[in-house]
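JOB MANIFEST
job_type = single_chain_structure
chain_count = 1
residues = 139
[input]
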Amino acid sequence: MTIRLRPHHLLCLLTYVGKGYSPAFTSNYDVIAGRLAQGEDVLIVAGPDDICAPLLGEEDAHCWRASVRVRDSLAARDLRRLMPGPVRAGTTITLGPELLRAMRGAFAAGKTRSACLGCQWSDLCSAVAASDYRGVVIP
């Protein structure tokens, strides 16, 4: 199988330590993180993805907002130079150890953080990156 992710979630998965919007969101993310840790491929999608799924039943789910589409665009732009191909809907990516290491290095150095500006999780992600990614679910 393939995990469907929107571009900015490629950044979020780098610092995921088991915290999220709700217990249902975190439980779902834990399953996805386990699949990613096992080497399952990622299919880039436009709009809500497998991580968003538990939030889609909420009234005015933020997954549909224009600001989240902007995050996707910024993440795709920032990650483009690290990826073996384009970061756009329909692209399949294998997140192997070398690519994850490069992504985490760029994230910690602030090179791929433009999508994170204004995100409520930014401080947590910065702390995780500063700790050399201690406690992340996806090694």
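[summary]
Residues 2-130 form one domain.
The radius of gyration is 14 Å.
exit_status = 0
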